[in-house]
Each structure stands twice: as structure tokens, then as C-alpha cells.
Amino acid sequence: MESPLVAVLGGGQLGRMLGLAAIPLGVRCRFLDPVDGAPAAAVGPLVVGPLGDPGALDAVAAGADVVTYEWEGVPAEGAARLAAGCPVRPGPDALAVAQDRLAEKTAFRRLGIGVPEFAAVDDRAGLEAAIDAVGAPAILKTRRGGYDGKGQFVLQSAADADAAFAALGGEPLILEAMVPFDRELSVIAARGLDGEVRCFPLVDNAHRDGILRVSRAPAPGLHDALQAQGEAIAHRLLDDLDYVGVLTVELFDAAGTLLANEIAPRVHNSGHWTIEGAETSQFEQHLRAVLGWPLGSPAARGHAAMCNAIGALPPRDAVLAVAGARLHDYGKAPRPGRKVGHVTVVADSPDALDERLARLLTIAPGTLG
Ligand code: AMP
């Protein structure tokens, strides 16, 4: 049997984990990344070149059964160009929606998905009008290119408008009402080629300085009605986008009502726990979906927590001494603020998980968790 070839646009840690999941399935991955020696180079051939470069795109896609991506910054035109010659899953439309916060929030609203009040801001006068419409406090965000909390300015009142515009003006913006949420959740869902949808249990995500630090899954206190709410949101988006692959929706839990914040048209940091903590990992699920294969069970195996290692890896021996802990080293050079790895810890009960997680969090405060 010929082994399928998946071309992956982007070769970071998500690509590396996709490539690792591909090996036991007998699937080959070839990656495109601008950085020579990017993390995915350890698990498959890497084409080095810009993600929008036609020659580089043709080289990575040559002979591939399907093209997918592990980074939503891939220029949508490049993905659309490839789609003429080979299936691109998820389709370029999903990329285009995910790349523009206004298009994203407009889609949420059109689909009847709860969303913070928002208004487009194109100039200084537009900011005034948006504050009138949305109220304060509010967050001004760049429509494109922001990630991990970058490109954002919090306005406590209309008096902050000048400062906000000075910080971000000059590019298309969106103003969003500040939601007094209780916690941040995400739903990671997959849609197969036949339209079947399967969702992992909702994940609870704690951020610091705009970067995800700790995910817990299933989210503490998760009950059927909340899970069903999250699944309905994911299902509507997946069907509307005629999506194939794994999609992540970041959510605010406001007193039990879920509001959508943003989507990532790919596997996601808040789904890394699925490698050890679910029947099927998000990476395998994505490969199954884009290859048109049956989806796997997304059920949790016990309870899991994932801690990102930011800036530096924690000492290996200390991590491995914690029962149920697994270390993932992305093979990246340490640098302040950079995700260089993660640790997942699993346990049979929420209490046992709490205890193991507490031990992990003492190992390298500031970098792990
Ligand atoms: P984002 O880049 O949109 O995911 O925003 C980064 C973080 O800022 C989120 O994870 C939230 O903690 C916070 N945030 C973003 N938008 C809002 C909002 N409308 N209301 C309250 N907090 C927000």
C-alpha cells in the first residue's frame, strides 16, 4: 500500500507533533517553513522558503495527496493557488476568516453564536463611534496579525481613545467590549470529509501575559449542558465553512454562557493534552480528517493538565520524577517568551491531577506553567 504524503505549510512544534502522529499511521509529512532546522525537520523532509513563495509552495506540495497547515498566518492566496492542483484541507476560506478578527466575529454573529459586542474601527473618528456603540471598558485590537495578546490595547474609558489610537492606529482595527468572563475555555473539534463532527471535551485555559500557561481537560466542573453548548458552536462553524480537519474555538465562559473569541483553523496549543489524555490525539485526528479516514474517539482518558515551557525547558529529571508527567521538547533554542516545550500530566481523578500539577508547578516557576 502506497504511503500517503501530507504537505504541511509551517514547520513549528505543531508540525512536528503532526509528523510524530503520522509515523504509526504510515503517513509521510513534508513541511514548508522559512527557518532552516525548524522543529518539524526532526520528523520529515523540510522545504525551506517563505510560506507565500510560489516556488516553495509548489515544492512542498509536489506529489502530495493533501495540503494542510499548522499555522494560520499562511497567505490565503498561496493556499488558494495550491487548491487548483491538490486538495487543501481545511479550505482557504477558513484561513481567510481566521486571519481577520472582523470577518471572524461577523461570522459568529451570522451563525447565532454568542460574541462580545464589537465594531470595526478604520480611523480616529471611527474609534469614537465604536466606543459609543460598544461601551467601555473595551479592547482595541488589530484585525490582522495579532497573536498571544499582541496588537491589543485596553481602554478603561473613552478618555483612553487617543492613547489607544496612538498605539495601534494606521491599520484596520476592531473594538470589542471587555467581557467579564469567569474563565477561558476552548473546544477542539474535527470534521471529516463526510461531514461527521467529533469534539474533544472542553478545555480550561489559564493565560499569563497573553500566553497560554496551563490547560486542564476535561475543564473542571464540565457538565453535559456546557459541553453541548461548546459543541454546538464548533458544529455550526465547521458546517458553515465546509471544514475538513481540526478547528479550535477559543471561548469565554461568562456565568455559564459561552461567547466565542476566536478560531484557529488548525491543531492548537490547548489540545496538546490529547496526546496522552484522549483516545485519539488532536494530531492524529487532523490527519485522519484531511486524509478522508474515519475519525477517532475524542473521549478523555482520565484527567489531564498541560503546562507550557516558556523561555526555557524545565530540568528533565525533575519533570520525569512526577508520576504521570510527560515531557515534550520542541528542539528550539531558548529565548525569552518563546514556547520551547510542554509537559502533560495525567491522573485518574481531579484530586490526583491537582496534586501532580502542583508538584510540576514548583519545578521551574516562571518558565513551566
Ligand atoms: P486574543 O488575542 O483575542 O485571544 O486575546 C488575548 C487575551 O485577551 C484573551 O485570551 C483574553 O484573556 C483577553 N481578551 C481578549 N478579548 C477579550 C474581550 N473581548 N473581553 C475580555 N478579555 C478579552
Tell me about this structure.
- With 369 residues, the protein is of the alpha+beta class.
- The protein has three domains: 5-88, Rossmann fold (3-Layer(aba) Sandwich), CATH 3.40.50.20; 117-177, ATP-grasp fold, A domain (Dna Ligase, domain 1, 2-Layer Sandwich), CATH 3.30.1490; 183-361, ATP-grasp fold, B domain (D-amino Acid Aminotransferase, Chain A, domain 1).
- It contains twelve helices and 17 strands.
- It has helices at 13-25, 54-61, 76-83, 92-98, 101-110, 124-134, 161-168, 224-240, 274-277, 282-290, 316-320, 350-361, and strands spanning 5-9, 28-33, 46-48, 66-69, 118-121, 138-142, 152-155, 173-177, 183-191, 197-199, 203-208, 211-217, 245-254, 257-264, 303-310, 325-329, 339-347.
- A hairpin with a 2-residue loop joins β11 (203-208) and β12.
- The chain starts with a strand and ends in an 8-residue tail after the last helix.
- Adenosine monophosphate binds at residues 116, 139, 146, 149, 176, 178-179, 184, 207, 210, 250, 261-262.
